[in-house]
Amino acid sequence: MFKTLDDIGSGKRVLVRLDLNSPVEDGTVKDNRRFARHARTVRELVEAGHRVVVMAHQGRPGRESFVSLNQHADLLAEYVETPVAFVDDVCGESAIDAIRSLDAGEVLLLENVRMCDDELPEKPPAEHAESEFVRTLAPEFDCYVNDAYSAAHRAHASLVGFPLVLPAYAGRVMQAEYEANTSIANREFEGPVTMVLGGAKATDVIDVMSALDEAIDHYLLGGIVGELFLRAAGYDVGYDVGDGELYDHQWETNEARIRELLETRRDRILLPSDLAYEDDAGERTERPVAGVEKERPFLDVGAGTVKEYADVIETSAAVFVKGALGVFEDERFADGTVGLLETIATTDCFSVIGGGDTSRAIELYGLDEEYFSHVSIAGGAYVRALTGQSLPAVEALAQEDC
């Protein structure tokens, strides 16, 4: 598919694209698992005696999270276990001088690549390759490494322009994410394949279900999308109450597709049998969906649903997860999401846990990532991989390899 770090050799000038995008609170950049994951690629390049220059982004122009990468350098250095220098420039004279002064085994982080005007426009790779940004930086390097799988669905200059003008390779995160997230289509499993689908974005879930079709034996639904499917099945749930604005507009957009999926795959779609809500005393309360009338928001699936879903997972050869089954950030309503993650962790199956909220639950509740085959740090790219849509940055690497 593409070349990897194993194909580079040693002693090169290497330009590396990472995705270090992180939460920012009161101007402080917060640590997240991306630093630890990408550190493996950087560390391996350092140990091979390369001069390593890192590109990354943070936020978007106009947002509070659009800040400098000066704090990212220190966070990355902790995981790479070697100093990471920083220059507050992307491709100007200061950046070029800093790049040329690097010695073998040293690491330099450039300023937020989205502060460069050439970066953000979505353009074909050939156009990006002709940009001043790419034409200025590329001559300073022997090769390019893309490790930013979680940004691979973007056709930005730093992701698709350099593979056309430099020998290009996939970093370890790119390699692992691609292999895991395409395994539904590329692997054969000796037993049932199950997908746990939740979260707030019904369209994403429906796109995944439509694209995978016969590849999945069981769909276990929860979260907002689970309620919308329950509504289509005739239950009095799946609409907004109070000040909520999560259900009705998604129902209007997706009703026809939800009904079609229920009609054509009802034997493979499992819906929640009970739901949990916050009662007047602030306690978690559960009730069956049969005969329920929605008077307040439901925040999780109930214990009965967890047991039914766990029984399916325990007999599965592979389990893929996209989206949380409840508001797990509140410990009272984490039983669905965490309960199924614990079941997956103790089941002898191939497992891929999607990025975003679901992978964050693993960290929040102290689950060991080693018990899962792969925990993705990708969000949008994970969904696009599952739905068979193109990933421009991956295609750029593959094109270079041809």
The major β-sheet equals: 6 strands, parallel
- How is the CATH topology of the largest domain named? Rossmann fold
Number of helices: 16
Number of domains: 2
What would you call the shape? elongated
Task: Give a verbal description of the structure.
The protein is an alpha/beta fold. 37% of the residues lie in helices and 16% in strands. The model has no long low-confidence stretch (mean pLDDT 94). The radius of gyration is 23 Å and the shape is elongated. It folds into 2 domains: 184 residues, Phosphoglycerate kinase, N-terminal domain (Rossmann fold, 3-Layer(aba) Sandwich); 188 residues, Rossmann fold (3-Layer(aba) Sandwich).
Summarize this structure as a short list of keywords or feature phrases:
402 residues; alpha/beta; Rossmann fold; 2 domains; 6-stranded parallel sheet; 16 helices; elongated
Describe, in short, the structure shown.
With 402 residues, this protein is an alpha/beta fold.
Q: Helices and strands in order, then pairings?
A:
Blueprint: E1 13-17, E2 24-25, E3 28-29, H1 33-47, E4 51-55, H2 70-80, E5 84-86, H3 93-100, E6 107-109, H4 125-129, H5 132-137, E7 143-146, H6 157-160, E8 168-170, H7 172-181, H8 183-186, E9 193-197, H9 202-212, E10 218-221, H10 223-232, H11 248-265, E11 269-270, E12 274-278, E13 284-288, E14 298-301, H12 303-313, E15 318-322, H13 335-345, E16 350-353, H14 357-364, E17 374-375, H15 380-386, H16 392-401
Parallel strand pairs: 1-4, 1-7, 4-6, 5-6, 7-8, 9-10, 9-15, 10-11, 15-16, 16-17
Antiparallel strand pairs: 2-3, 12-13, 12-14
Helix pairs in contact: 1-2, 9-11, 12-13
